[in-house]
Design brief:
The protein has 311 residues and is of the alpha/beta class. Helix content is 37%, strand content 27%. Helix 1 crosses helix 3 and helix 2 packs across helix 3.
């Protein structure tokens, strides 16, 4: 029987928010991922990097403040650093967990770039907050450099960057080759390193890509059988956070589209996951999307937990 090709998207809860928390979190995450491997899934893993890239950006900025000979690291470099740092922890923890179960399978992290459109509207209205709180003077310096900042009264200013839509995964053929070689692949971490193609040269963009958006594209590019999105809740809920809250166990794409204008999905939380699911199912109508928590993924793949979305 051929293996089921699956893209798994890991959220913040699967990784933690600090260096030590990440080390502990990925050990738990590795067990859930190993369960999927034992269930005969051929995994390609992508992950968030919000806290990690923000931490790296803060550190590199402070390094520049203390040692003026250092050049501040651009966002694309911080993104690349976070891919390596998070991928390192995931691949080592997963490799150890698989070996403890008697499974010898290569786990590889692939530094991944993703092209974006320089004229994407997101560049004109940045929304993703990163980095440390700054003084008014530091904020003015950032503005003079062409960067955007947002004021938080009583706390200071923070930089905001664009979140453009992904166009192409540059290393998709390398990812596909590793998948076809029966390896577990960690790719497109943090949405991928956003780059703009200029006469065959890839130049890093001051932006971040939503990890849910890239998960949907990665799953469709690989023509995967399933897209599993792991998040902080056990399933999708209708009337989330209200007394009338109720779980949605199954829905099709048409039903999901009807629920979007009704504001059933949180704009910065569940909505990006639903949009990723719809984008994937449009390209792979035979596919299936599962949205659940890391604790329930083993049950979710058996239809005993989570939310299943089909075309």
């Amino acid at each position: 029987m051929s293996k089921k090709k699956v893209v798994v998207s890991l959220g913040h809860d699967a990784l933690g928010y600090t260096t030590e928390a990440q080390r502990d979190a990925v050990m738990k995450t590795a067990k859930a991922l190993a369960d999927l491997v034992e269930a005969d899934c051929q995994l390609t893993i992508t992950h968030s990097n919000g806290p990690q890239v923000s931490m790296i950006h803060k550190a590199m900025t402070e390094l520049r403040r203390v040692y003026i000979d250092y050049t501040p690291a651009p966002m694309c470099v911080c993104s690349a650093m976070s891919q390596g740092y998070v991928g390192y922890d995931i691949q080592n923890s997963l490799r150890a967990e698989l070996l403890s179960r008697g499974i010898s399978k290569p786990v590889s992290t692939l530094l991944t770039q993703v092209t974006v459109d320089p004229y994407d509207e997101a560049f004109y209205e940045p929304t993703k907050v990163i980095g440390r709180y700054m003084s008014k003077e530091d904020a003015e310096t950032e503005i003079k450099k062409g960067n955007y900042v947002r004021e938080y009264p009583g706390r200071g200013f923070r930089r905001v960057v664009a979140a453009p839509k992904p166009i192409e995964i540059v290393e998709i053929e390398a990812i596909r080759a590793l998948v076809n070689a029966n390896q577990v692949v960690i790719a497109c971490g943090g949405g991928g390193i956003p780059v703009i193609e200029q006469q065959h040269v890839l130049k890093g963009a001051s932006a971040v890509i939503e990890k849910d958006a890239i998960a949907g594209k990665l799953a469709s590019d690989l023509v995967c059988d399933e897209l599993i999105i792991l998040t902080g809740v056990e399933c999708v809920y209708k009337d989330f956070g209200k007394e009338t809250q109720s779980p949605v166990r199954n829905m099709n794409a048409a039903e999901a589209k009807e629920m979007i204008p009704a504001k059933e999905f949180g704009e910065g939380t569940m909505l990006p996951k639903i949009e990723a699911a719809l984008a994937y199912l449009e390209k792979v109508p035979s596919g299936k999307v599962i949205i659940t928590s890391i604790d329930r993924v083993k049950d979710a793949i058996k239809g005993k937990a989570g939310t299943i979305i089909t075309a």
